[in-house]
Amino acid sequence: MSSLIWSMLFMFIPCLWVCASLDLMKCWVYCSSSISCSLFVLSIAYFQQSMLSAVAVSSSMMKSSVGCLLISLTLWILILCFYCSAKPSSNINRFTGAFWLSGLFLILFFSVSKMSLFYFLFEVTAIPMVVLIIGWGYQPERMQASIYMLVYTVSASLPLLAFIVYSFWGFGSLSFFLHCPPHIISDSPWVFLVLVAFLVKLPVFGFHLWLPKAHSEAPVAGSMLLAGLLLKLGGFGLIRSIGWWGFSLRGPATEIIAVVSLCGGVITSLICLSQTDIKALVAYSSIGHMSLVIGGLFSATQTGWLSAGWIMLAHGLCSSGLFALVNNSYLQWGSRSVFLVKGGLSVLPSVSLWWFLLASANMACPPTLNLISEITLFCASVFLHCWFVFPAAMMVFLAAAYSLYLYTSTQHGVPATPHRSFIRPNDMMTASAMHWVPLNILALGCSSLG
């Protein structure tokens, strides 16, 4: 419980200081970086010790290894969201309030032990994101993107709500510490319907149409929040479903989900190579990376579960940094088209370096956490099915292809149009470093713990 109190304390400080000056915000970011990094290392160690360990701290709250890991990620990404958005705005108080609510809901979601609160927070986390898209989106299509997001997430979670109500009638309790009856667990079609709610939030191919629209219309901090944190709700929900509700991982439903997820990841990776919008490219790459989480979780091995957790952590840091760089390019050129965003290396070489480093991390180059997580995933995918190694390997190859395409198309060549204003290089370099450095530090920690 004390960790939750400190988490909320660290959330209040940027909400107050972001309304003051950028210099104060920088001071707080630098001071809190070491604290958040230590939280990351401790969470990784706790995560390695026991994937499913959990301790009840009250009647409605519990401390779990996965929850501690994702709470630390939440604190870190929120710091970076505030840092990248610390500029004058006409509605800065509402903007800050939306982020405060989102962080509050996320921390509570990763800590609750009641199914009713779990479902409520699972749904309500989408509201601040919708507010950010509608209030600070770029194009008139932001209303359509918000409707897509709400319709997909709410409609897909209705079977989950029915399952929770049915479990309450059967048990008389909504605690996660009580397992579901065997006749519910063994019903594969019912398991598939319940898991759809989490597959939409992950998202898995076929349920992903809302994600590129939401990313395209969201502001930079909204995209960082969505890719870095909100997509992890699906992975965390799957961990709770499999670990606490006892869903079987050996059945036709889970095999179909694994096949669709991995093959869909290959398809979305091919879509990335045909994108002309660099923000949409990064958004589609999230679908491919998060589909690997399915392969790790459904392998039913400790190695697979560790790789799934590491992939979620690595993706949260890497994709958030890429969206920050995409926004910087948009401020430079006034466009997100690969035909207009050219010559970043000649305009701002220091920022181009961070483009290269984060693109390399996105393709799982050493010594990043992405490499460690994908190596462990390959070892675990054999336990799921020997043929699943091939789509996973294809996704890794295509990830390298579209990451190189993203870097070369934006940083090389001759600028097509004169660049406009952009974020000061020191600010962008600081934000990029705070995304990239933890990927390498945590990779060393994970390799030593493994």
TrEMBL record:
Its EC number is 7.1.1.2. Residues 115-392 form the NADH:quinone oxidoreductase/Mrp antiporter transmembrane domain. Keywords: Electron transport, Membrane, Mitochondrion, NAD, Respiratory chain, Translocase, Transmembrane, Transmembrane helix, Transport, Ubiquinone. It is an enzyme of class 7 (translocase). One of its GO terms (molecular function) is NADH dehydrogenase activity. GO terms for cellular component: mitochondrial membrane. InterPro entries: NADH_UbQ_OxRdtase (IPR003918), ND/Mrp_TM (IPR001750). GO terms for biological process: ATP synthesis coupled electron transport; electron transport coupled proton transport. Its main location: mitochondrion. It is a multi-pass membrane protein. The chain crosses the membrane at residues 6-25, 64-83, 95-112, 118-138, 150-169, 189-211, 223-247, 253-273, 280-299, 305-326, 338-355, 375-402. It is found in: Mitochondrion membrane. It catalyses: a ubiquinone + NADH + 5 H(+)(in) = a ubiquinol + NAD(+) + 4 H(+)(out). Core subunit of the mitochondrial membrane respiratory chain NADH dehydrogenase (Complex I) which catalyzes electron transfer from NADH through the respiratory chain, using ubiquinone as an electron acceptor. Essential for the catalytic activity and assembly of complex I. Belongs to the complex I subunit 4 family. PANTHER family: NADH-UBIQUINONE OXIDOREDUCTASE CHAIN 4. This is NADH-ubiquinone oxidoreductase chain 4. It comes from Laternula elliptica. The gene is ND4.
